[in-house]
Amino acid sequence: MSQSDHFSVLKKSALAAELTDAQCARLSEIMTVRELAKGECLLQEGDQDHSLYLIKKGNVSVTKHLPGMTKETLHVLHEGDVAGAMGFIDGQGHSASLCAEKDAELLCLSREPFEALLSEDTHLVYHVMRSLIRVVHGIVRNMNTSHIEMANYITRQHGRY
């Protein structure tokens, strides 16, 4: 994949929402490509990984092993979605596994080269981090909505069962 391909994929993503074309080009320069075969896992639950991933091609399942059960699919990420945001931000172990449903291609942004941009372009780093917070906030908002809907269903309140 060429740098122009990196740029076009990045430009369409949530990460680039506040970036100029020059900032987007600079960020795309430090991104690498990771290819996954169908069924191959990018991350396992509990792994520590300091990279952020942008899905260029394919679908990636977010799965979790629950006690006494097989793995449960929590969500499926599609082209343009961001994966690994929390591990990238806080460095903690991942709460779920990420595995390719079919052959997939991802752009990878490692934390070290990203943090090196702080001395070059603090606004670029700031805007990417704001975008990541928006992505995480959206996930939390969806989880909250699902929790309320499930609670309403279980308790048979509000006529939503």
Describe the protein.
The chain is of the alpha+beta class. It has one domain: Jelly Rolls, CATH 2.60.120. The protein has 5 helices and 8 strands. It has a 4-stranded antiparallel beta sheet with strand order 1-8-3-6. A 4-stranded antiparallel beta sheet has the order 2-7-4-5, with no helix packed on it. Helix 1 (3-11) crosses helix 2 (21-29). The longest helix has 34 residues, at 122-155. The mean pLDDT is 87.
CATH class: Mainly Beta
Question: Can you summarize the main beta sheet?
Answer: 4 strands, antiparallel
**Beta strand %:** 25-35%
- Fraction in helix: 25-40%
Helix/strand structural class: alpha+beta
Widest sheet: strand ordering: 1-8-3-6
Termini Cα gap: 48 Å
Count up the domains: 1
Uncertain segments are none
Question: CATH superfamily, called what?
Answer: Jelly Rolls
Q: Order of SSEs, N→C?
A: HHEEEEEEHEEHH
Write a compact overview of the structure shown.
By secondary structure, this protein is an alpha+beta fold. Helix content is 40%, strand content 25%.
